[in-house]
Amino acid sequence: MVIDLKTLTIKKAHEAMKAGDFTAQELAQAYLDNINPELNAFILIFDDVLEQSKKADERFKNGTAELLTGIPMAIKNNILIKGKRTTAGSKILENYKATYDATVITKLKKVGAVFIGGTNLDEFAHGSSTENSAYGVTKNTYDLERVAGGSSGGSAVAVASDMALVALGSDTGGSIRQPASFNGILGLKTTYGRVSRSGAVAMGSSFDQIGPFAKNIEDIKIVYDCIKGEDKMDSTTLKNGRTEELEQKIDLDKKMTIGIPRHFLQEGIDADVMENFEESIKKLKEKGYEVKEIELPNIKYSLAVYYILMPAEVSANLSRYDGVRFGFKKEGENLLEDYMKTKGEGFGKETRRRIILGTYILSAGYKDAYYKKAQVLRNIIRKDFEKAFSEVDVILTPTTPSPAFVIGSKGDDPVQMYLGDIFTVSSNVVGNPAISIPSGFVERDGKNLPIGLQILAPHLYEDVLVKISDDFLS
Fold this sequence. Notes:
By secondary structure, this protein is an alpha/beta fold. It is built from 16 helices and 11 strands. It folds into 2 domains: 10-227, Amidase signature (AS) enzymes (Alpha-Beta Complex); 245-303 and 369-473, Amidase signature (AS) domain (Amidase signature (AS) enzymes).
């Protein structure tokens, strides 16, 4: 039978496999047949996909199948799967095979999910376009001349182009939400500590979070419910549940109040993106939501705080790739030359830029001037959000100031590239959950390009994001 991948959901696929309409192997093969190499969404396709799906079929036969059993997933290639090559988009890890499973992979294996392959990303997740990968540029689903977004561009394109039913990405400053917006799908950045980072190649350890991509909110929730939870392998994970004080804060059965930080939406946004945002607000008002203007006095500093603290963490995290312990090595005449040649040739331009910047920030005489001040400001921004969430239930912004840009158009101007993260970085700075959902299209060069609406909620309130997303999209 022909499987309609465009309208397929996790529940539809589960019911069909349960009823015997198609097998997990047939479903996996349908996705494998639909992979478009021109989009360059995958760094590698796994050679045991049909073997994985055969085991899923056995679970359907013996009655132990769960909702995610046999569901084809794409996994960002910075998340470890034992025995699989995990490159993090870098030459320096081109031949590294994972020696253990990331915690999220262990959870997904337990329920019988099928992993199609490792998706392309900006090197070590350093970027907003997937142009910085050592394995080529991933192209946008809607326009091959434009970027997929990043750093999880491959995962977003895999889902948007029906090469996987759902996918995992990682989000350090918008790396799930921005490519979700650029490709017309949903992407969830979870509360910091809600999903284990064990087995994810570290970028900025106080910012990174793993989260799902999907084409509908129900699938987002199903994957999130599977991967969330406390993990002894990650000391930053949070205990399950919320405090009684938080439980009383938001009543999901009542219409909620949405906060709009209009003072932050005055400059740098394309006119048609802003027009779409106003239409989105109107739509939520019509569904009974109250809308209130709010002040986030220091949110404008979020990007600066992020681009001080994140490179500092990058510098520390990438110091281990020295050509001695594992990964790519380039021989020199002595140990220092080994290090210089290995890192000079193994790391790409953007990664080298961030290492240099981070090392400078952490150096003697500058740590107090930059790093410590940024940490103080991070706490001030966090308090601003806490105050705002005492007045409103969620905060709304566009996901990005523009639709996907043309490949190569920002390569020589990293500051312009960084400014594209203006709306997404704040939730990583403060650690609260945020989601990007499709809000419509804008026209560029004769093509309709998708854009997204970002919803931010208080810590641990992913269920609020799910409810509002469901209301908006229904």
